[in-house]
Structures are given as structure tokens and as C-alpha cells.
Amino acid sequence: MNDQETPAAQALRLVTTHFPHALGAMLGGSAAQGRANPTSDLDVAVLLPDSDTTRREVIRHEGRLAELFLNTLADVPEFFEWDRARRRGTVLFIYDQGLPLMDPQGHLSRTCEQARAMLAVGPPPLTPAEWERGRYGLTCFMDDLVDTPPTNRYEQLSLADFILREATHLLTAYHSAWTGIGKWLPRRLLSADPERGKALLNGHQTVAEHADPAPLAAAAAQVLDLLGGPLREGYAHCWRT
After folding, report:
1. Is 197 helix (H, G, I), strand (E, B) or coil?
2. Which residue in 175, 210, 24, 49 sits closest to 114, CA to CA?
3. Of 14, 101, 208, 213, which shows the fewest CB atoms inside 10 Å?
């Protein structure tokens, strides 16, 4: 790719080279939003005829990594339901916010409409058992963090990571918002709840930089207060549920 070529042009060439039978393609992620740098990978969703198979692949094209989300037309509805059930909507957001690369027969536009309709419904709510399990887990690890001496940095940092992930899971669910992992965790968290989300992220950073668990524990306690408070004695979980 030369310096003047756009990621979209390279992504389109990838699709036509590797999937000449594609029925549609969409560029997602930072490349579609104009935030990519030369080392960013390409997130590309590709619609395939039903004679192919739905899968996820990572390839290197012209020296650049590309993460491919490949779906046959017949599998799209079921796959979208699966993506929604995870409460992250990774591929749904590509079809909603991405940059169209090719759509010769209108399949891509119809698939985008399906994705937008599902995103409008929102992620599924947590079950009562999931709420309790989340509250109990967050409570336990919050207590462990407070009790861990700051000299034990390995355990302290591990606990802080879990608390941030679990608190994000619960707080986004509380707001009926989509969640995320990796770099999308802080983005989804701040979008769902700017004030409490920032407190969690700042608290996590304080543990990492200063070995001080108090701000993160306080931020986690705020999340628990929204959900009925910490859960310790009285929690029960049946093995087969």
C-alpha cells in the first residue's frame, strides 16, 4: 500500500483477491472511522454465498494483518443472535458503523438493516442468577483487594483487573448497554456511565501506579450499591444451573 492509499482501498482489494465470490463486504473498526495507523489491522466483515461456511479468520494481506468475519447469508440471523447474546455485538457494530466496500446485489444493505434492528433492541438482560453471581464475585474480589498488602503486587494487580472487568459487566448490564473487552471495555464503560465508569478506570489506574486499592474499592462499592449492595452470606449457587 502506498502512502496515499486508503485502508478501504486495501480492504476492497483483499476481498476481491481472497473472496471473489463475496456478496458484500464492510470495513469496520478504527480503519473505517479514520483513526487507523499504518500498523492497525483491518476488521472486515464479508458476506458469502450459502455454499461457503461461516467462520472467523486472521490473514496477512499485502503485509497488513486483517481480521475477517465471514458469514453466509443463511447464517446471518443466527449469528447475529449469538453476537447479541454475548452482550458485545462485535459484528453487529461493524455492520452498523462500518464503511461499505461492495454491495453488488443489495445483500449488504439488507444485512446492515438487520444489524441495526438488533442493536436497537439492545443486549439481553442478565438473569437473576447472573446478577447474584456477578454481585457475589465482585464483592469477594473487592474484599480480597482491600485485604491484599500493597507489597504483593502480582495479586493486587490481578484482583484489580478482575474487579474492573466484573464491574463493567454489571454496570453496562444495569444500563442495558453493550459491553466490551480489550480497548472496547473502557469505551463501552464510559459510554454507558461516564461518572461511575471514570471512577472505576481511575481506581484501576491508581492500583497500577500507586498500589492504592481504596479508590477502586470505593468505585466497585458504588456499582454494588446500585444492585442491592455487596453479597456475601446467603449466596447460593446450584451446580446444574
Report:
1. helix
2. 24
3. 208
**Dihedral angle sign, alpha carbons of residues 220, 201, 121, 22:** negative
CATH of domain 7-120: 3.30.460.10
The answer to whether residue 3 scores a pLDDT higher than 80 is no
21 and 49 Cβ atoms separated by less than 8 Å: yes
Question: pLDDT digit string (tens) for 90-112?
Answer: 999 999 999 999 999 999 999 99
Residues in the chain: 241
Q: Tell me what the mean pLDDT of segment 168-193 comes to.
A: 97
Contact 24, 99 (CB under 8 A): no
Place 241 in a pLDDT band, splitting at 50, 70 and 90.
low
Q: For residue 116, give the 3-state DSSP assignment.
A: helix
Domain boundaries, the chain: 7-120, 128-226
Return the CA Rg of the chain.
Answer: 21
For position 32, what pLDDT does the model report?
86
CB 111 within 8 A of CB 76: yes
* Residue found by looking up cell 499485502 in the block: 62
Distance CA 81, CA 149 (A): 44
User: Could you give the residue ranges of the DSSP H alpha helices within the chain?
Assistant: 7-18, 29-32, 76-85, 90-97, 107-121, 128-147, 153-174, 184-192, 194-210, 214-226
Strands 64-72 and 42-48: parallel
- Residue 179: CB partners within 8 Å, gap ≥ 6? 87, 88, 123, 168, 169, 172, 173, 185, 188, 189, 192
